[in-house]
Amino acid sequence: MKKLDTGEKSTWCPGCPNSLILEGVKQALAKRTNVAIVSGIGCHAKIFDYLNLPGLNSIHGRVLPTCLGLKIGNPNLNVVGFSGDGDAYQEGISHLVHAARYNSDFKYLVHNNQVFALTVGQPTATTEIGFKDKTTMPFGSKIVPLNPIKLMLACGASFVARVFADIKQVRWILNEAFKHKGFAFVEIIQPCITFHPDTGYKEKTYSLEKTGHNKRDLKAAFRKADEFDYNTVKKIPLGIFYQEKRETFEEKYPQLVKLKKKEISWRNIKR
Ligand code: SF4
């Protein structure tokens, strides 16, 4: 665990749930080797400064192609990408659609706090109708929020999950994501205590695993995804909505299969 510390002083607001995500991630990564991380731009991206791991603090919305690039460069890397909701669902949404289709074997954690927090709280694709900030005054946001879980199910993602920003939940889901071969999409509900506080979200959460939800049933996954409406916030299911075994991007191409087995290296691939 200590080896994962960079010693950098945290600049997240005191009490920001990003610190809990960081701790959960550290616990899940403590015994893993060959890990590389990628972050985008936003409050979430500071996690890159606090994890003593190689990787790239990439540009806004481009976490996913950067993860894919790392996997193509070295299919044996355990790649973890981090985005915020602005990064994933706004700037990077086209990459998200295709990452689900490509099914490259990396893990993607979206810190969803429903605002562009680093730039002081403008609405994102998951902000509820009526949310007010300086850019939406006096009427508040009028745009219908996106349902990222439904989007990922519709795009064919092979692992779709949601947890709350809680150390144990983050550790558990990242371990589950690593057991999965393929693209693992994990949304983390991470209230922004400064610009979008948790107004009773945690009390509305429940575990899909405890209700006997069948994670192989796509239709049931869609029904569960519909339960969390950002405008009304009545129920928030947490856990694995859907998981299926599917050929990964790295298994589709003979060069990548050979690279993975270390039978060839990029130096001797004939172009
Ligand atoms: Fe966390 Fe919000 Fe502060 Fe950013 S602005 S560090 S998300 S509490």
Please explain how this structure is put together.
- By secondary structure, the chain is an alpha/beta fold.
- It has a single domain, classed as 3-Layer(aba) Sandwich (Rossmann fold), CATH 3.40.50.
- The protein is 31% helix and 18% strand.
- The chain has 10 helices and 10 strands.
- An 8-stranded mixed sheet has the order 2-1-3-4-8-7-10-9, sandwiched between helices.
- Helix 1 crosses helix 7 (167-179) and helix 4 (85-91) packs across helix 5.
- The protein binds iron/sulfur cluster.
Explain briefly what this protein structure is.
The chain is of the alpha/beta class and 271 residues long. The chain has ten helices and ten strands.
